[in-house]
Amino acid sequence: MCVKEGNMLVRRNEIRNIAIIAHVDHGKTTLVDGMLRQARVFRENQFVMERVLDSNALERERGITILAKHTAVEIPDENGRLVKINIVDTPGHADFGGEVERVMNMVDGVLLLVDAAEGPMPQTRFVLKKALERGHRAIVVINKMDRKDAEPDRTLNQTFDLFIELGATEEQAEFPVIYANGLTGQSGTTPEMGPDLHPLFEAILKHIPAPVVDAESPFQLLVTNLFYDEYRGMSAIGRIHAGKIFAGQTIARIKRSGEIVPEKARYLFVYQGLEKREVEQAEAGEIIVVSGLENVEIGETLADFNEPVALPPIEVEEPTVRMTFGVNTSPFAGKEGKWGTSRKLRERLFEEARNNVALRVEETDTSDAFLVSGRGELQLAILIETMRREGYEFQVSRPEVIFRQGENGETLEPYEELHIDTSPDTVGTVVEMLGSRRGKMINMTDNSDNTVHLTYLIPTRGLLGFRYQFLTATKGMGVMNTLFHGYEELAGPIPSRLTNSIVAWETGVTTNYGLKNAEERGTLFVGPGVPVYEGMVVGETQRGSEVVVNVCKKKHLTNMRSSNKDIEVRLTPPRVMSLDEAIEFLADDELLEVTPLSFRIRKKILDTEERGKQAKREKELFD
């Protein structure tokens, strides 16, 4: 039902557009599962996997949301009329903040999920700040009420303090509160929850404003997301800000540069549950999919062909970390990958930059290497893993921070606000590690679960390669979260890696005998029977410089054995690194070779003799 507001403005009471925002692992996607079930989106006997919106294989493996997802449910209002609720599930990790910032353009309010035991976490601050800056109202959902250590009163007080701290208006600070357990699909206005999510649905209808739109103005839509359909071509997702659109209509695509290109909106879709339903027309206030476009990009405006007026483009924070992506130049190049040429690599990276506004891709002096900049190590690692699974073969450098020049010509670097929870036994070790990385302690408090919470301000450089060392020092029990703080003056030298590499001396296949000799010098990354090449990193040593070993060496056969121990060589199982650990391990003179089947750490200069000459020249230059 539309209600006229005057001056051609109309309030569309039959629609609500909301985003669900929260810190990582506070239950956003699980709560959406419950909302879909109770809105009868699924058939009674239909099998539905958990976290149904995390459709990306990487999202399911890592248990995090990477891409913003869209769905819609219909629920009756107090008069029995059906109201459509467009729901956007957003990432909780700050590295994917570009997704969050885009989504805020499409919605009129947010559900802020907060864990009843953990309270507001660092990335709760990040996503809430973006929502408040857009002027959105929030419904606070205190989730996971079934936890034994749940403290809803403390969580509510901390959440209110956070709203005030982030500069919420008086209206925004008077937020409604819903207590919920997304896993069991329960909610209530008090900690004594009801049997279903009806109180949550009621709160959305009551407190999230219906879109107020200009239905008679020329058509306008800001493209906030893209996906490719092999049958219908490129599809653009966005909210209609004004006017209406018909299937098959000729429209104008206004580029960021201001150039206007004619397009045809061949197909129109709206969201209905997990499906996209084809429609003949759509009006302002609705989130739609326009398919069959040619070269549309995020941040462009789709507008009326006769009266094209651009909307303000999406602005996201600048990247802080970058890596070099290059064509694989190792001796094993071309053996495992499907795509490995510079042309294919270039096409894929620039396609990613089109779909991800938080990512930047730049050409370099050479045609086979590209600079890729993002919001953090995790965002770049997800891109690497995605491309690897698609069949690409390439090599990447160690991540490095992006410096800036200050007003007075001084060098500035990015800083992070680091939050750590660890046991009292390991606090001393963690404090010592962060001190050596130029971290400044801001706060230190005791948590209710007998852990210690540390808050630090630390250069982003100090966090590169830190996570694995931190998990080792805390025996895997420590938790760390980061939030971009801003640019400040250069902090000075920071030690990157305290260990050195064990490097293969020749190309061949590893043997027990060769590995046994190498094992005495440190920890190995490979076992017997593994193909290696000269310059490939096969282990880690505590020594002050790299160690070159022949891991392919064979024992000369004789008729005599010196002792029974020669009959069988027992090796310690090698350390198998994940992609994230391999990226963290890289030194400045190393690269990571990435293929669909494996990833190998290698030296930039593979030739052992040439590498020695280079080190000698650098030492003479330094002296």
From TrEMBL:
Q: Which named protein is this? A: Large ribosomal subunit assembly factor BipA
Tr-type G domain mapped to chain residues: 13-212
Q: MF terms per GO, please?
A: GTP binding; GTPase activity; ribosome binding; rRNA binding; tRNA binding
Taxonomic lineage of the native organism: Bacteria, Bacillati, Chloroflexota, Anaerolineae, Anaerolineales
Q: Which GO terms describe its biological process?
A: ribosomal large subunit assembly
Q: Which NCBIfam families match?
A: small_GTP (TIGR00231), TypA_BipA (TIGR01394)
Checking HAMAP family in the record gives:
BipA
Species of the source: Anaerolinea thermophila (strain DSM 14523 / JCM 11388 / NBRC 100420 / UNI-1)
Q: Does the keyword Cell cycle apply?
A: no
Does the record carry Nucleotide-binding as a key word? yes
